[in-house]
Amino acid sequence: MERKVISTEKAPAAIGPYSQGISAAPFVFCSGQTPLDPATGKLVEGDVAAQARRCLQNVRAVLEAAGTSLDRTVKTTVFLIDMADFKAMNAVYAEFFGSAPPARSTVAVAGLPLGARVEIEAIAIAAVAGL
């Protein structure tokens, strides 16, 4: 199994010693994406819905850089600093995943990098012949 680092300018650069994603066939592992605008490197303004949207756009960019997509996602984990934000995050999440969404865990955490309200990570099936 070959391990390949995934990197794209369409998602924020890593803010620590980790990769945006790793491809290890048959899977792509996308690091937790915070709501950073890749063009500015700054946290997007707005409520948790705006932040969740940016997180998912960043996840999509990493997966696409790996040659796969949100449609091939099998598992996500959502980290929220306040479970009162669950309903708003969930509405945005539904926009990105159709009628067959991936398995998901949602957990409350004490804090996230740079004061983000939400972070989302994903595991997807790589676009490998025969899969």
Task: Give your account of this protein's structure.
The protein has a single domain (3-125), classed as RutC-like (60s Ribosomal Protein L30, Chain: A, 2-Layer Sandwich). Strand 4 (73-80), helix 2 and strand 5 (103-108) form a beta-alpha-beta unit. With 131 residues, it is α+β, with helices and mostly antiparallel strands. It has 2 helices and 6 strands, in the order βββαβαββ. The chain is globular, with a radius of gyration of 14 Å. The protein has helices spanning 48-65, 86-96; strands at 3-6, 21-24, 27-33, 73-80, 103-108, 118-125. The chain has a 6-stranded mixed sheet with strand order 1-2-3-6-4-5, covered by helices on one side. Helix 1 (48-65) runs parallel beside helix 2.
